Amino acid sequence: MTVRSMIAAGREGSLAVQQLPNSTDREDGSLVPTTTTGHAALALAHELYVGRRKRERFLSGDLFGEPTWDILLDLYVAAREDRRVPTTSACIGAHVPPTTALRWLRILEAKGLVEREDDGRDGRRTFVRLTDRGLLAMDGWLEGMLLALDKAMAKAKAQPAG
């Protein structure tokens, strides 16, 4: 699949992103998420990102090539911690060559999940962040994972010891 075909496919948006919960508009036209995930979702996103690096101690890193997931997790944590992420840092955090990371950032941007903003003080630098749509998508996925983990733990506790 080429970058152009991936971007074109993204114009319709994925089913999961199309089914996001409703949101409200701010005066500036951006969206305010109507759901909050709190500290648990942030902690889960952080642990997932760190866990992906730890996994490489046991299994070869080239088995798990998902630079977009690394980018999304990294940007989610940054958004919830109210940090700005330079584009170069997002590329480093993807753990792939910079050209590959930039290609995936363009695809995520075309799908409306991330956006870039210029650094007002340094014209050579740009920042990247999740859009409101991207933040809602990550909130929804993380909320679902937290529920699934709770359910799994409840099942495990209900099993007889033995």
Automatic annotation (TrEMBL):
Limits of the HTH marR-type domain: 57-161
GO molecular function, one term: DNA-binding transcription factor activity
UniProt keywords, alphabetically: DNA-binding, Transcription, Transcription regulation
Pfam families documented for this protein: HTH_27
Gene3D superfamilies xref list: Winged helix-like DNA-binding domain superfamily/Winged helix DNA-binding domain (1.10.10.10)
Signal peptide region: none
Protein name as it appears in the record: Winged helix DNA-binding protein
Species of origin: Novosphingobium olei
Lineage: Bacteria, Pseudomonadati, Pseudomonadota, Alphaproteobacteria, Sphingomonadales
